[in-house]
Amino acid sequence: MENYIEKKQLDEASKNEARKNEARKNEARKNEASKNEARKNKASKNDISSDTTQLISIDNPKSINNKNVDDEGKKIIKRERIDKNNKEDNNFIIDDLEKQTDKISMNILNILKASNIPNCDILKRTNNRFAKAFLYLTEGYKMSVKNVIKKSIYKRKYKNNTLIKIKDIHVYSLCKHHLLPFEGLCDIEYNPDKYIMGLSKFSRITDIYARRLQLQEDLTNDICNALKKYLKPLYIKVTIKAKHLCINMRGVKEHDAMTVTHASYVSKKNVSCFKENINLSKNEISKSDSHDQSLS
Prior knowledge:
- Residues 1-69 are annotated as: Disordered.
- Belongs to the GTP cyclohydrolase I family.
- Pathway: Cofactor biosynthesis; 7,8-dihydroneopterin triphosphate biosynthesis; 7,8-dihydroneopterin triphosphate from GTP: step 1/1.
- The chain is built from 8 helices and 9 strands.
- The chain is α+β, with helices and mostly antiparallel strands and 296 residues long.
- Among the domains are: 85-137; 146-295, GTP Cyclohydrolase I, domain 2 (2-Layer Sandwich).
- The strands form 3 sheets. A 5-stranded mixed sheet has the order 7-4-5-8-9, with helices on both faces. Strands 1-2 form a two-stranded antiparallel sheet.
- Helix 2 (97-114) packs across helix 3 and helix 5 (200-210) packs across helix 6 (216-231).
- The protein starts with a helix and ends with a helix.
């Protein structure tokens, strides 16, 4: 009986020792895997840092310093969207897109929690989806209007009094007040002097300014001022007619309310052109009104 008990104790001790050895091996494997992961992360960060340094050195070798590039490569210069000669759009240094998305996503998650909204499966990645959508809708801050315009300006062949109209450019933007969308149509008309511009670029310029946090009044003037600055026309007018969700779905809840804004410029050397274009616009409006009445 004593031999049996002694043998059983030895077996149990042997099993315990085996378990300890297995636990040590598992711990060693985990430590090794952790070290390998740390090495990979360090190598990846060094690669990002070197790539960023290379980007900056190509643009401006003197710009390499601790302010522009940190060891972890946290900041990347988007060269393709930087115009060195344009003070308004120059020197855009933005956080890595993934890091920006993570920051916004975490804060939106906190907002959802603070709002006591019941959790469910479909909300698991809502904060991340919102972050990506928001960065897309505000991407206009990283775009250069001058880069779009300067490649598409041409000298005029004819010197006659030509009125050019681009109508029904779709506008989608976020209101500065509530971060709610507003959408509408933009009409641009101008009388060129020496230069004209590719027609598609009017839509691109409108989109660049619309994909920023905006007031409709400011958006209208932003477009008008940019075209005035680079095209130097004899006359230009920008009109936006839009519906704001901050009015339609909250507050006063005016579901059919529309906001119309105008911005215009007339060159001093062509006031007569301005009067002529005003008359043309009035005639067009009256024709449109009479057409609407006939339809009704």
